[in-house]
Structure formats: structure tokens, C-alpha cells
User: Fold this.
Amino acid sequence: MFKGKDIVPLKEREMRTIRGNAVSMIFQEPMTSLNPLFTVGQQISETIRLHRGLSRKHAREHTVEMLKKVGIARAVEIIDEYPHRLSGGMRQRVMIAMAISCNPELLIADEPTTALDVTIQAQILDLIRRLNEEYQTAVMMITHDLGVVAEMCHRVAVMYAGKVVEEGSVRDIFKKPLHPYTQGLIKSVPRMNEQHRRLFSISGNVPVLNTQMKGCRFAERCQNVMPLCLEKLPELKEYEEAHSCRCWLHETPKEEVV
Ligand code: SF4
Assistant:
């Protein structure tokens, strides 16, 4: 769903007007997402020319502007470089420049800092936050890093085996997680002040997703599993204000929970 509209049935031609324009994406490995055979300038201006219909000259000027916007100081030189000549952080900036070149309403960032070292990670996250605040671009951040979630997000949807199992404000998710999987995730974060504790881990493995699953997908690993959990998949339901969870535990009177 995008802006209340189901975009799955759209024709490829219609999707092309949304993709890269109203919705764009930053991937986790900038080296494999950029085409090694074209300069970064060619790759960014292709998007601009396609969606904005600008001339080659104007698209190049707009590309330089975009590269500056994402903090690349030598934009006029970098525009003619091939991706392999740039560092990981620079490449990710180029990817972001490409993603925001048509001023998207939604930017999907899929593990945007995983392949980067910690200092560059912080710079890229700062840049994404600035885009969100200054240009009002909505950002959907996909990450397994709870530190990044706490730092960057307003609302969080926790997914397990392809289903959203909990959704709420970042504060609610960290302060009072409702789903056993979220509770396990938060418990497994190492704490600076607890150096001698053995790190908690959720036992078992993620289910194989191409098999037919019955009941709650987390049941095999859940310490609170009940017979009902093995039979029926719970719905995602709002149990507190703007805080939803997919778990039978919150439907069952406390005395019935073993
Ligand atoms: S529905 Fe049951 S198995 Fe699934 S998370 Fe809740 S208590 Fe655990």
C-alpha cells in the first residue's frame, strides 16, 4: 500500500512512475547496487532524465547539486568517477544522491549502513535524518540493529518470519515490548554495564519459510507457547494506544497461561 493505494496490481509502466520517483530505495551494499560500467554521474542523471525529462546539461547540473547535498565536496570531479574509485561511504552517499534526486515522498533504506565502518555509519545515519527533517521525506528503515532503531526511528514494526508481530512507538517497543520475540530481541542486546553476564539468545532457529505454517510462527521458540498457539495464527491487534501485537498471550486470562 502506498498513500492508501494498493500498488501490487499496477502495470509495469505505472510502477515506473512511482519507482525512483515517489518511492526510492537505498540498498545495503553500494558496490553491488551501482553499475561498475558507468560513472556515478551517468547513473544519477539517468534517473533524473527519466523522471524529470531534463536535458543532458541540466541533468548534469542537478546531479552535481545532489552530490553536494549528500556531503560530497568535490562533486564536480566525483561525477565523472567510476564506483570502484570511491570508498564505501562515498558510494553510499552516491546511492543516497540517486535515491533523493527526484525528491521522493518515501525513501526505503534497507540496512543502509551494514557494509560501512562505525564512523561512516554515523555520518550516513546523520545524512538520512537530515533528509527526513529538512525535506520531509518519509524514511522506512529496514535494519536488524536495535541501536540504529533507537537512534533513528519514531515508529517500529518488528517482523518475524515474514509477519509483523509488533508495532508501536520506539519508546513503547523498548520500554514495554508486548511480543515474546521483541522481548527476546531486547534482552539479547549487550549492555555496557553488565560485562559479566552471559549474553541472552533466543533458542532455536527461524522456520523454513517455504513450508506451510500453521499457528504462530514463533511457537517453536517461544517460552510461553500454549496449545492454541500451535493451531491458530493470531491477528495483529491494538492492545494499548497505537501499540499492536500478534500474540495469544494478550487474549488469554493470566491464570490460564502456563
Ligand atoms: S502466540 Fe503463543 S507462541 Fe506465539 S508468541 Fe504468543 S505466546 Fe508465543
Remarks:
- The longest helix spans residues 118-135.
- The mean pLDDT is 90.
